[in-house]
Specification:
Length: 338
Amino acid sequence: MKIAALAAFAALSLAGLQSAQAATLDVVKKRGAVVCGTTTGFAGFSAPDAQGVWRGLDVDLCRAVAAAVFGDAGKFKIVPLNSQQRFTALQSGEVDVLTRNTTVTQQRDTALGIIHAGINFYDGQGFLVPKKLGVKSAKELNGATICLQTGTSNENTLADWARANKVSYKPVVIETFNEVVNAFAAGRCDVFSTDASGLASIRISKLEKPDDYVVLPEIISKEPLGPFVRQGDDAWLNVVRWSLSAMIEAEEYGVTSANVDEQAKSENPNIRRILGVVPGAGANLGLDEKWAYNIIKQVGNYGESFERNVGQGSPLKIARGLNAQWNQGGLMYALPIR
Ligand SMILES: N[C@@H](CCC(=O)N[C@@H](CS)C(=O)NCC(=O)O)C(=O)O
């Protein structure tokens, strides 16, 4: 009796705990859409196309969460946020998840009431300069004016690097993306500094003559970019974290949007678990057993999303580099779904 009572109590407290933690997932399910915070328009990662459809590596992550929760990658809403606005929007509940080129740092992960749910792009901060300046290395930037966007990690990283390398510069810090890009294009600063992915995107999508600009060879920091959720909601953290992980793991096992139905017949136990042929992973997340199948079928695996949005199938042509799979010399290492 005593043991039975204890077990009942344990089950009750576990249920209580789970319901407290499941808040965002419940809200999202009731609303019928996941609300993702993105950039205001940063080609390759999150930007509306000519038809106004939001596309990009980060938008795909948002779609993946929608596919996992609803079995429908279309059930999402985008809230465009500039760098400065993004954390308040997540903290206040205006968005369910930040899918927006945000660097994971110790401070952001601890002090802001938010926490990262994985890494979907390993990046580093760099410099973009007009070729006509004749600059070949960042070490030659002494005395330069450098454009940066307000509210980015890039401001502090640049200050640290400049101090360490005895480079003096004049920061031109502007709040909105278009204005800071326009300031650079108009020559109001000599240099633009942000994540290398951002520089590639700006060069190709925002500057009239991309060939007149060059990205300098120095990468001055680690910028691991990933989705963020609010602290204290582990069930939702898991939904986002494992949606991303499923995309990465699907690539590792060669499961693509094109072959996912064929792969569902695979004998490989890992693939059978990912695709829900062997049940369990879905129930563990409070989702349908087809959660990952739906992500892969409708959004694709990580490699497909990478190539289409920022890689060889896109104007950006960013190499996989650090974002290749762990067994291909990169850092993408999915946590196993088992
Ligand atoms: N990874 C850096 C920089 C991210 C960032 O906000 N970059 C700017 C410059 S590329 C951006 O995405 N702006 C787009 C916008 O504000 O809509 C961070 O997390 O602070």
